[in-house]
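Support case: adenosine-5'-diphosphate complex. Customer-provided input:
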Amino acid sequence: MVTITMKYILALDQGTTSSRAVLFGESGLPVMTAQREFPQIFSHPGWVEHDAQEIWNSQLAVARELFKSGVDGLGLAPEAVTAIGITNQRETTVLWDRSTGTPLANAIVWQDRRTADRCAALHKEGRDALIQSRTGLVLDAYFSGTKLQWLLDTIPGARTRAQRGELAFGTIDSWLVWNLTGGRLHVTDASNASRTLLFNLHTMDWDDTLLSLFDIPRALLPRIVPTSGVLGQTDPALFGRAIPIASIVGDQQGATFGQACFSPGMAKTTYGTGCFMLMNTGQMPVPSHNRLLTTVGWQIPEATNSTATHTTYCLEASVFMGGATIQWLRDGLNIIRTAPEVEALAASVPDVDDTYLVPAFTGLGAPEWDSQARGALIGMTRGTTRAHIARAALEGIALQVVDVFNAMAKDSGISLAELRVDGGASQNNLLMQMQADFLGIPVVRPHVTETTALGAAYLAGLATGFWSDTRAIAAHWSVQQRFEPNMSAENRAAKLARWHQALSRAKGWARD
Ligand code: ADP
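Agent response - structure generated as follows:
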């Protein structure tokens, strides 16, 4: 091992399909990355599980990989890492034994639909308004509350053991911190807690009425710590030395922070498997009247070393099928071999020739929340080719984002001046140009699109003085490419009207 004078922040980015470790330097640029995939477990239709132990093993392995190889292949001294920041797939639910640290069951992943019936029953009891006003969420199986209830109802003796304080619940951030600290800390932050259906956005604490609605003993729950702040140290046995853990943030809120959306009205969209748009709405939660989610963005100290914190809230919209639509062209239709090929294929025709692809393969998320909607490809003639379908797929992604964008503008009363973008599919220039055209505002892609991990790093760096304040961080954000809208208002309105006709054909299609 060599002496290293450079200092870094290590971000642990625990995603739905892989665990990543990314090392960031003072300039906010990633200098090293390690990534490992882990198995997805589909034991019943509609169920999605992860082995929590595999999550931890893969996360530890990628972090150790960075220490082993280091920036120059000679190893990275643990003292070169000022702090660790954690970002994670949200809502995924883990239940473990406090004395052994062993999970009682596989983790139930956010995509898992097994508690849809429980949500329907609560809906019938008229609980939607209570839940929305306290949590900012819609009543859906996506969130942790009914998943945890299912585990307690299903595992023999679990609820009694939970009441005795023998068990711990956590989203993936809590599970990672528990393991990183050798079982010493059971904590979460408000950006993750606000996705559980158990957290009150106004009191910033677990809510007793909701806990009794879901029959969840309080003794199960982690302590809530600020999103940015030194919450503890890693077990020295893991990396050879104790390293401060200085942030915990849910992945989409992390990406919003990584995009430096620090002022109210700034927004980003991540084009990954799904598309996630988040808008910073400032220091008060903005209730949605258009079926978007109100969520905690981050809770950070007023200043370095200050114990006083302030909370930034966001409006959030999730589109289920974003880049996954392109995966379907590749794996379902076999009309492209790799995702990036879609761009040239779509660009080989000048327009979609009035063909629309509504990618409601798994129902529609915001703002429709129609679980009965199904995919539709409409308007084809004998002249339709795979190129038109590829182009319609890209338009289908961009048009869904327009719908959530408009819902967000209505809820927030803010009309955005520009949209910041990131995620795998944001590399597609044609898609980004379509997005600017259909929105009528510029779309801006930064140099660093590794924004989720970057957000966790920034939050950890702020807590440890690595970066002085958000102004210093915002100065690192720089434009790689800007896409200016190039479509008349008349054509835009006609396009959206036609899209909504196609959308109405896809809604409510599936029968029970
Ligand atoms: P996630 O974090 O959800 O796994 P990523 O941000 O890694 O997603 O992006 C991967 C997704 O982006 C895949 O669904 C893939 O189909 C899509 N994708 C990647 N490159 C392109 C491209 N050039 N054009 C369109 N879609 C793309």
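Residues 15, 17, 272-273, 323-324, 326-327, 339-340, 342-343, 423-425, 427-428, 431 surround adenosine-5'-diphosphate (CB under 6 Å).

Case will auto-close in a few days if no follow-up is received.
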